[in-house]
Write a structure and sequence with these properties.
Elements: E1 12-15, H1 20-27, E2 48-54, E3 57-71, E4 74-86, H2 95-107, E5 114-119, H3 124-129, E6 133-134, E7 139-141, E8 148-149, E9 153-158, E10 170-172
Parallel strand pairs: 4-5, 7-10
Antiparallel strand pairs: 1-2, 2-3, 3-4, 3-10, 5-9, 6-9, 7-8
Length: 177
């Protein structure tokens, strides 16, 4: 499906809050709306939220959270992107690009050099189309029992021009976002 010719061009906006009801409006109220429960991971809530409304209905969301990392033993900070969701009935119409774009526009004002996200393998192609790249190194994330390998794909995007991802193992010094 290509991008839809909307009567009003959808715009990503910062949300004052993002409630469980709004999440259910986009994804339904199933127990595992992101399909990641099998990982057994504990996830952090996002602190900043962006959405797209069409006809007053929230149809897309992306959240942000600054997170501490080590890459090749060097401490850096990234802006984690998570909770990306588009309502099933409007997928394939460019709304992920709109909402992730709005979130990244804000992320570029926060200071860190990199955006970071975790996704299921079938979503890698979508994020690549949005300019994200896969991290080739092993990624470990914090959990209650200590650091564990991230079972999902890890992707990054530069938040400033001319950046490349540093070499070395990656350790997220927090729960994933």
């Amino acid at each position: 499906m290509g991008e839809r010719a909307w009567s009003v061009v959808p715009v990503g906006v910062r949300l004052a809050a993002y409630t469980k009801a709004e999440s259910a409006e986009i994804l339904g109220d199933g127990e595992d709306p992101f399909g990641v429960a099998y990982t057994g991971l504990t996830w952090l809530p996002k602190e900043e939220h962006f959405g797209v409304r069409v006809g007053g209905r929230l149809v897309a969301h992306a959240g942000l959270l600054r997170v501490p990392l080590e890459i090749g033993g060097v401490a850096v900070e990234a802006v984690g992107v998570g909770g990306v969701a588009v309502a099933a009935d409007v997928r394939g119409q460019g709304l992920a690009r709109v909402v992730v774009g709005a979130a990244l526009e804000h992320a570029r004002t926060l200071g860190p050099s990199y955006g970071l996200l975790f996704c299921r393998p079938p979503l890698v192609t979508l994020y690549e189309r949005l300019g994200w790249r896969e991290v080739g190194a092993e990624v470990r994330v914090e959990q209650a029992e200590g650091p564990v390998p991230m079972p999902l794909r890890t992707m990054w995007t530069p938040l400033r021009d001319g950046l490349t991802w540093p070499d070395g193992a990656v350790r997220l010094r927090s729960y994933p976002m």
